[in-house]
Amino acid sequence: MQRLTLAIEDFNSVFIRLPTSDRLTFSTLSVLHTLSRTGPCRLSDLVRTEQIKQPALTSAVAKLERDGLVERRPDPSDGRASMLSLTAAGRSVVSRRHADRVQGLRDLIDRLPPADRTRLLGIADVLRQIVRLANEKPHGRSGK
């Protein structure tokens, strides 16, 4: 498990730094990515998913609003709260970043031997399953 963990950590370091056309902070991009995956949500929901303190997240969201990437609307279930969602410009940033990462990853994978490319592409479903399991319920140390 140690070897797998190190490999994933090293891969993540490479992956999140693949060149992209948009120059935004990691926290800002994470908020945009989360909103693109989950749809509209409250700031309190983002505090849980983004793992940064509320003042920092509030500041990041305010900047995203000023830049026209995120908008607030009243929460239909609670008029005192607001829901955050991506604007068309925000969706465009997420889409461009995804396309940039696809190309960057493709360039790296193309340098692998064919058998390794096939093996690597085959684990996408396993990774999706791990993400699904992580999202099903809170996880902690299992002692295993």
TrEMBL record:
<dbReference type="InterPro" id="IPR023187">
    <property type="entry name" value="Tscrpt_reg_MarR-type_CS"/>
</dbReference>
<dbReference type="GO" id="GO:0003677">
    <property type="term" value="F:DNA binding"/>
</dbReference>
<dbReference type="InterPro" id="IPR036390">
    <property type="entry name" value="WH_DNA-bd_sf"/>
</dbReference>
<dbReference type="GO" id="GO:0003700">
    <property type="term" value="F:DNA-binding transcription factor activity"/>
</dbReference>
<keyword id="KW-0238">DNA-binding</keyword>
<protein>
    <submittedName>
        <fullName>DNA-binding MarR family transcriptional regulator</fullName>
    </submittedName>
</protein>
<dbReference type="Pfam" id="PF01047">
    <property type="entry name" value="MarR"/>
</dbReference>
<keyword id="KW-0805">Transcription regulation</keyword>
<keyword id="KW-0804">Transcription</keyword>
<dbReference type="InterPro" id="IPR000835">
    <property type="entry name" value="HTH_MarR-typ"/>
</dbReference>
<dbReference type="InterPro" id="IPR036388">
    <property type="entry name" value="WH-like_DNA-bd_sf"/>
</dbReference>
<feature type="domain" description="HTH marR-type">
    <location>
        <begin position="1"/>
        <end position="129"/>
    </location>
</feature>
<dbReference type="InterPro" id="IPR052526">
    <property type="entry name" value="HTH-type_Bedaq_tolerance"/>
</dbReference>
